[in-house]
Amino acid sequence: MRILLIEDDQSVADYIVKGLKQSGFTVDHADNGKQGLFLATSEKYDVMVIDRMLPHVDGLTIIQTLRAAENKTPVLILSALGEVNDRVKGLKAGGDDYLVKPFAFAELLARIEAIHRRQESSTTQTRLKVADLQMDLLAHKVTRAGESFNLQPREYKLLEYLMKHAGQVVTRTMLLEHVWEYHFDPQTNVIDVHISRLRQKIDKGFDRQLLATVRGAGYMLHDPDAE
User: Which domains, from first to last, does the chain contain?
Assistant: First the structure.
């Protein structure tokens, strides 16, 4: 995967570039908006990570320029501005996700992989499959080994998100933002309750446990036999 990082804080940029290269990615770095916009419009990237506040050309202007030119490369916005209105502005400008500074590299990586995966997914995809667990998006039906499950709307949405990110660690923040549409942590155990209920429905009575808790990181839906 080839990534463009536009970040003017050198220490933050060094931290991100080092981590991404160690993760096997190719990274180009621009330390100002003008250079970043030039690279973004002249080169091809799989994902762009763009700081919101940049010298010369700000991050939102870069994103709006790209979208106006019908450049659909996934964009993760980085910013110290974490209020709901700030996030909304970033997403409305054309960003695909928004990560507030300071952040853990593991979450940055997970979000990059998530928006890249969404981009690669076919827009006409109607079925999701992980091991013997299947979801029919048109019929709104979930089965495992031929057995149907009756899921509540939020459980269905949670499972759909986990299946679309199968094999990846999904953090609590990601679930709150994309399943519950909270852009802050409301200090609630709502995720734990729903994960527990979902696990009871899709894993109980089966030899293979598909829904795993990754201690200190989040959750992952995966096929243990495929690893």
Answer: 2-120 (3.40.50.2300), 127-226 (1.10.10.10)
